[in-house]
Amino acid sequence: MAEYGNDSIIPGFDEERGDHLNIFLERAETERSIVVHLGDRLDTYNTDYFERAMGMVLAAGYTKIVFACAELGFVSASGMATFSKMWKILHEKGGTMAFAEVQPRVADIFEILGLTGFFPFRASIDKALEEVAREPAKPVALKSMNFTCPGCGRKLTATKAGKFICSSCRTRILLSAEGLARAC
After folding, report:
1. Is 99 exposed, middle or buried (0-12, 13-18, 19+ CB in 10 A)?
2. Nearest partner of 107 among 118, 116, 98, 94, judged by Cα
3. How many other CB atoms sit within 10 Å of the CB of residue 104?
4. Could you tell me the residue range of the domain that residue 34 belongs to?
5. Are residues 154 and 102 in the same domain?
6. Residue 57 and residue 68 in contact, taking contact as beta carbons nearer than 8 Å
């Protein structure tokens, strides 16, 4: 992945570098669209840098973002939270985002956190660009389901049914659409 040259797309973008996170920007042909190639890892140590970098992308007027993740090997919970913040900001601005070429290990993290139905995932950058080029759907108010971990009793929240792992005791949980949780 190329590591420099982003200043030609967004002036001043390359003035700061993140530890163990490479970001390479690529212009897209459709208006207000950009491809953000991510490499290495997005974790607690570099999420502040990532948030500042994405703030620059938004400030430059890009509201249709594809995150190309072919070289991204890990995303922590704080990285996932940053993606969720980006989604919220983009939807407030009438924009959208999609993920392309996500590695299986990273896809598993999205799935464990119940976010695979929340974000669009596409096999290629071209398919992800097609996704963000469409008119974005109206923002949807998500309903939260509160449940208790069957392993440790911790109170947890999810936005949809699915498989989860408790962040406290690492119990695998299957949450039904009715909000019933059981160990699996």
Report:
1. buried
2. 116
3. 7
4. 6-133
5. no
6. no
Do 16 and 53 share a domain, yes or no? yes
Domain contains 139: no
C-alpha span between 65 and 31 (Å, rounded): 11
Do 110 and 40 lie in one domain? The reply is yes
Distance CA 29, CA 104 (A): 28
- Closest to 148 (Cα-Cα) out of 119, 126, 169, 118: 169
pLDDT in tens, the chain (184 residues): 444 589 899 998 988 888 889 999 999 988 899 999 999 999 989 999 999 999 999 999 999 999 999 999 999 988 888 998 999 899 888 899 999 999 999 998 888 887 887 889 999 999 999 999 986 555 445 567 888 889 999 888 887 788 888 888 888 888 887 778 888 8
Query: Which token pair is 47?
Result: 């999420």
Instruction: Check which CATH number belongs to the domain holding 60 and give it.
Output: 3.30.750.24
- Closest Cα partner for 40 from 64, 11, 69? 69
What is the tally of structural domains in the chain? 2
End-to-end CA distance of the chain: 39
CA distance 165 to 167: 6
